[in-house]
Amino acid sequence: MEIPANPNEADLVESHAPTRPVHFLGRRYRLNCAQARPAVRIIPAIILALAFCVAPAFGVDEAPPLSGLEGRYAQPYSDPLAPFNEKMFWFNLKLDKYVLHPVASGYASVVPEPARESVGRFFDNVGFIPRFANNLFQLRFARAAGEVARFGINTTLGVAGLFDVADNWFGLKQCDNDFGLTLGHYGVAPGWYLVLPFLGPSTIRDTIGMVADGAMSPWPYFVPWYVSYAVSGGQGAVEAVNYRSLHLDLFEEADRYAIDLYGAVQDGYLERRAAEQGEIER
Do the domain assignments include residue 72? Predict the structure, then answer.
């Protein structure tokens, strides 16, 4: 694969982040609410995921197990969609370089960091439904109850989630979860690696999970579709710019020294998702 001539050609590889699930134009690998219409789409998503789980195609072109993750969650992965994935990967990097990073830099220059951190906490708070639901789907009732308590406390005492008083005052930690991890909990394999335009690294299973998580948004049930699309689009744009503004230089060194940037992002994403799967099984 072609290596960029300019070592700074890629200013962002969000998927290298070892602790926070993110993607190029949004966070936590979920679709905006308007991208998944009413909740009936959750059922087809589950059926598709189960179909992919048993499909023999997952055994094609398998690579060695992920390094450093020996055991239950170490598994081979394949990349038969590499030609498409690489094109989407470089498209996302160019989009970040010429659009997202400049906008985020300008935003960071006028909005103080504490305010931007509060905006991030606000979006974490309003996105509690998929975390609550998926903890419930996995029969992790204590974590699900904790998410409800966090939402109630932060929405009231935390001024709509701008401040995480549930953690700071009561020690209630956020329990990140998503439908992709729920499918993995019940034995669904990740499937092929897939790079989505605008959204970044994923897998077949995680993409289905994003659709299911998006269908949990309440907006499409109470407002017309065009309002839902406008709200979700605006939310996604603000959330992406805000997150990027807090991580302007985080991956500069990785971009500069990675020999195979595409492969490094792929490995980082798959290893992180395997680690997250292991974490929720504890």
Answer: no
Q: Please check whether residue 9 lies inside any domain of the structure.
A: no
Give the residue-averaged pLDDT of 208-221.
91
Domain carrying residue 135: 14-58+78-280
Tokens 């909005």 map to which residue?
A: 111
Determine the Cα–Cα distance for residues 268 and 212; give it in Å rounded to an integer: 24
Would residue 31 count as lying in a domain?
A: yes
Tell me whether residue 8 is in a domain: no
Task: Describe the crossing of helices 128-137 and 141-156 by its angle, rounded to 10 degrees.
Answer: 160
Number of domains in the chain: 1
pTM equals 0.73
Return the structure tokens found at 99.
Answer: 């659009």
What CA–CA distance (Å, rounded) separates 104 from 109?
Answer: 9
| Residue 171 Rama label (left phi>0; alpha psi -120 to 50; beta) | left
- Tell me the per-residue pLDDT of 33-63, one tens digit each, with 9 for 90 and over: 333 333 334 444 444 444 444 343 333 333 3
What are the pLDDT digits (tens) for 233-260? Answer: 899 999 999 999 999 886 676 666 677 8
Burial class (CB in 10 A: 0-12, 13-18, 19+), 262: buried
CB-based contacts of 247, cutoff 8 Å, min separation 6? 12, 14, 17
- Taking the alpha carbons of 168, 156, 22, 241 in that order, is the dihedral positive or negative? negative
